[in-house]
Amino acid sequence: MRWSRVLPVLAVVVAGLTACDDGQKADPEPSSNATAGESDLRPLGEPIDVGGLRVRVTVKEVGSDKDGPWVTTTMRVKNVGQKRIALPMLGLDCAEPMTSGYATGPSSLIAPGRSKTVEVPLYVRGMSDDYYAPVQPCGASGSISMLVSSGQPDYTMSESDGWRLDPDSLSDLNALLPFTPPGGEPKDPDRPYAWTEGEYAPEAYQVVSIPGMTYEQAIRILDPVRGSPTWDDYDRVIVAEHERGVVLFTYGYLPDRYVRALSREGVAASFASSINADTHILVARRGRVVRSFEPMLGQDFKKSKPLPEEKGLDLEYDTWPASWTLLERITGIHITEEWLLGADHPGFRLRD
């Protein structure tokens, strides 16, 4: 799906991390089978030397919350090298099927000879292009892997495969699965504006609905540049009468001042989406912004209370169809894919 949350499959939101500097407290020496390049998994708690670090990992707790099952680990890291090194990242891997979630402690550097202890919660996520895909039970085995800094901004896999998940933790984790992430429930393909997240739907755009306005009134307010831009002009703004009102649509960006101006005699409602899935709903009444927020994250750009029309809409997990539905509730203007994208509407370039 084009418009998924812009979160890598292996990336998770890390909460409740704690760290402490253990000074120069000695760690036990790694066992004789912890040689570089060894692919065997080690028991939890056994130290592994890699990339100038000596790392031990234990499981503190297995649990679940609204974001899914997680395993909280305690990672003890000592710098046994000669230079400052960043804390490694940890990953939770399951065999049947592969699931994973990476997280790390505070992004601090460890000086030579110093140690740090960090709690790292690892959320389970499916290895799928769909972030919302259901996560199946972990299966008969699981492990905690490690990514160690290469000295660059990126991370590279360490030479060790990590630690074997203990039977009790694995059993507790399997008991919490399968799990469907929030927003992963099947959605009605016939719900209003489902086409706005279809395969051929536009990705970056802005749409504005203004009820009770004519084409001529909109043009007088917008005062566009003379001449007709080509259809592939990024800044081209479509202006068309529709259902006793006017609809504006552009693949570019329409400054807020235009939305406010268009609302002088009533209301104007706008929804914008960027190529990075940043979204913005703006509602203005009689020249004043009454609602401005990011619907996916619920972040207010202008402090305001939710509008009555927002009730019952899944703006967080069904952002695009729900946002278009909100515009229709506010303005009474229904927009179809055929009318918007299948017709030849007049377009203009607005002044900077």
In helices, the fraction of residues equals 10-25%
Distance between the termini: 34 Å
| Tally of separate helices | 5
Total strand segments: 22
Low-pLDDT parts are 1-18, 31-38
Structural class: mainly beta
* Count of distinct structural domains: 2
What CATH first level of the largest domain would be assigned?
Mainly Beta
Q: Round the mean pLDDT to the nearest integer and report it.
A: 82
Shape: elongated
Task: Give the percentage of residues in beta strands.
Answer: 25-35%
Report on the biggest sheet: 8 strands, antiparallel
Radius of gyration, taken over Cα atoms and rounded to an integer in Å: 26 Å
CATH architectural designation of the largest domain: Sandwich
- Pattern of helices and strands: EEEEEEEEEEEEEEHEHEEHEEEEHHE
- By CATH, the topology of the largest domain is Immunoglobulin-like
Strand arrangement, largest sheet?
A: 21-20-19-18-15-17-16-22
Description:
By secondary structure, the protein is mainly beta. It has 5 helices and 22 strands. The protein has helices at 167-175, 215-222, 256-262, 319-331, 337-342, and strands at residues 19-23, 42-43, 48-50, 53-65, 68-79, 85-86, 89-94, 99-104, 109-110, 115-123, 125-126, 142-149, 155-157, 163-164, 205-211, 237-241, 245-250, 267-273, 279-285, 288-294, 299-302, 347-348. The strands form 4 sheets. An 8-stranded antiparallel β-sheet has the order 21-20-19-18-15-17-16-22, with helices on both faces. Strands 2, 7, 8, 11, 12, 13 and 14 form a 7-stranded mixed β-sheet that branches. Strands 1-10-5-4-3 form a 5-stranded antiparallel β-sheet. The radius of gyration is 26 Å and the shape is elongated. The protein starts with 18 loop residues before the first strand and ends with a strand.
